[in-house]
Amino acid sequence: MSRASIAPFLLISALSLAAACGGKKPPVANPTPPPPGPAVFPGATTTRPPEPPAPVPEPPPIIAPEPAVVSDPLASMDMDEINRQAPLAPVFFGYDSDAVDEAGQQVLAANAGILKTYPTWAITIEGHSDERGTAEYNLALGERRALSAKSYLLSLGISADRIRTVSYGKEFPFDPGHDEAAYSKNRRGHFVVTAK
After folding, report:
1. What percent of the chain has pLDDT over 70?
2. What is the mean pLDDT of residues 14-40?
3. How confident is the model at residue 96 (pLDDT cuts 50, 70, 90)?
4. Which of 26, 44, 46, 176 lies 20 to 30 Å (CA to CA) from residue 9?
5. With the C-alpha atoms ordered 185, 186, 189, 191, is the resulting torsion angle positive or negative?
6. In b/e form, how buried is each residue of 75-113, taking b as 16+ CB within 10 angstroms?
7. Nearest to 165 by CA among 141, 132, 186
8. Contact 171, 129 (CB under 8 A)
9. In this predicted model, what pLDDT tens digit does every residue of 8-23 receive, in sequence order?
10. What are the domain boundaries of the chain?
């Protein structure tokens, strides 16, 4: 390459270098930081979103109280002791009647409650009468009384296979007297627990 051809090249290179070093820089815009808070856009509201709710503490675990130990003396007694305690009350009948009156219904309802409490108990209902009348008649009347009491218990939900009936007529009076006060006690359906 000749000198004449190198000169223009050097001139162009020098001018380019001078322009790069000594020329003015293009203006640079300094960005302005955004204002604090949410950005506002056209149509947007300036309210802040609600704060998230504070976490709810977990409640302490519920500890069930220990069940109270209830003493049940009937459960630990043998049948003789139970029958001495007589938890099942007798039902009484009117003269020459096997109808269960209102007082008798209340007694039988209470007895049914006890039998439901002790579902393994089996009972015998003994039918009794007072001393008036023949032995045969009183045996039949005692049987009808025992069956009436049984029927009422069945209507209250007691199972038939838990109830036996027997009649003793006038053979086993509750009160040995010979007046109406004694007779009224002897006309009865008596309850005996026969199995537990």
Report:
1. 72
2. 57
3. very high
4. 26
5. positive
6. eebeeeebbeeebbbbbbbeeeebebeeebeebbeebbe
7. 141
8. no
9. 555 566 555 555 555 5
10. 88-195
Query: Tokens for 38?
Result: 């949410």
Q: What is the CATH number of domain 88-195?
A: 3.30.1330.60
Mapped onto helix, strand or coil, the DSSP state of residue 122 is strand
Residue pointed to by tokens 């938890």: 87
Single-letter residue type at 80: D
- Both tokens of 122, joined, read 């089996």
Alpha-carbon 175 to chain mean position = 47
One-letter identity of residue 185: K
Going by C-beta distance under 8 Å and a sequence separation of 6 or more, which residues neighbour residue 129? 138, 141, 142, 145, 169, 170, 186, 187
